[in-house]
UniProtKB/TrEMBL annotation:
UniProt name for this protein: LysR family transcriptional regulator
Organism placement in taxonomy: Bacteria, Pseudomonadati, Pseudomonadota, Betaproteobacteria, Burkholderiales
This protein's record includes keyword Membrane: no
Family of the protein in this entry: Belongs to the LysR transcriptional regulatory family.
InterPro entries per the UniProt record, alphabetical: LysR-type_TF_proteobact-type, LysR_HTH_N, LysR_subst-bd, WH-like_DNA-bd_sf, WH_DNA-bd_sf
Length: 308
């Protein structure tokens, strides 16, 4: 029995909760994964998992063993990385997840700058509005915009801030009375971005006089992609909320106009999220540091331009 391999397989099963998921990640099959765990249990003479036809759960002994395994494997990974200089010099492939709007407007360009600084890094960027399971889906970093993050056990760092505002096409606004306050929005057509990060309660507008909750749950058009939302708004579908980084080009071109410019939606943080572990690979560490420098500057400059 390869004890180290069995420890890694056991840890992956704990983290994913599935023999099948581990088999997919390791490009193996369920029988081999199950055999590795069984061999480990036979060697230890203790049952690590309770198994049923529907799920597997850790035994008390398994939970204690997992805690020890995490420390052992982290030390081993660190020793391997240190020997290969991976802790100091970034190299290899970095898999990055990002939400579509931010990924399309800023992150793709940030990655070009990062690779110019670290030419030994290859990057795979995947855009999705759903926060991934980093370990199971083998992502190194996820870049998301949110007011707060769920308690996932991941490590997160703030790499910038942004906010959204209400916008509409001039062709739509020409057909309606002037908008001077949130009360004037009654009877308008709303277009909503529908994603896990979006509020289902409505738009919370912030102004100098305090917060205003605008109920947009009766939106006639719901879209799960910010670029598609932008296209629909330009076509005159109604009033919608876009992040500054998604709306700025249309505002400059005049194809969209800001509605109630004295109000904005609450500021959200841009987080870089990565799996919690004792030692962070240099490619992850340097990428997050680069985003703090480059992405935050891009967002701040864009918002300053909007204000001016």
């Amino acid at each position: 029995m390869d004890k180290i391999h069995s420890l890694r397989v056991f840890s992956r099963v704990v983290e994913t909760g599935s023999f099948t998921a581990v088999a997919n990640v390791l490009d193996s099959n369920v029988a081999r994964v199950s055999r590795a765990v069984s061999e480990l249990e036979n060697d230890l003479r203790v049952r690590l998992f309770h198994r049923t036809t529907r799920r597997i759960t850790l035994t008390d002994a398994g939970a204690r063993y997992y805690e020890r395994c995490q420390q052992i494997l982290a030390d081993l990974d660190y020793a391997d990385a240190e020997a290969g200089n991976a802790m100091n010099e970034p190299h290899g492939t970095l898999r990055v997840h990002a939400m579509p709007g931010l990924g399309q407007t800023h992150l793709a360009a940030c990655i070009v700058g990062y690779q110019a600084r670290y030419p030994n890094i290859e990057i795979e960027l995947v855009l999705s509005s759903t926060m991934p399971r980093l370990v199971e889906e083998q992502f190194d970093v996820s870049v998301v915009t949110a007011r707060t993050l769920p308690d996932s056990g991941y490590v997160s760092q703030v790499t910038g801030t942004s906010y959204s505002m209400l916008v509409a096409a001039p062709s739509y606004l020409e057909k309606h009375a002037p908008l001077r306050s949130p009360d004037d929005l009654d009877g308008h057509a709303f277009v909503r971005l529908q994603s896990p990060a979006s509020s289902t309660d409505g738009w919370q507008l912030e102004g100098a006089d305090g917060d205003v909750l605008l109920n947009a749950s009766a939106a006639r058009y719901r879209i799960n992609d910010p670029e598609a939302l932008r296209v629909a708004l330009r076509a005159g579908a109604g009033i919608g909320a876009l992040a500054v980084y998604s709306a700025i080009d249309d505002l400059r071109a005049g194809t969209l106009v800001r509605v109630l410019p004295q109000f904005q939606l609450p500021t959200r943080n841009v987080y870089s999220v990565y799996a919690s572990r004792r030692y962070v690979d240099a490619k992850i560490r340097t990428f997050v540091e680069f985003l703090k420098e480059d992405l935050s500057a891009r967002l701040a400059a864009q918002e300053a331009t909007l204000v001016s």
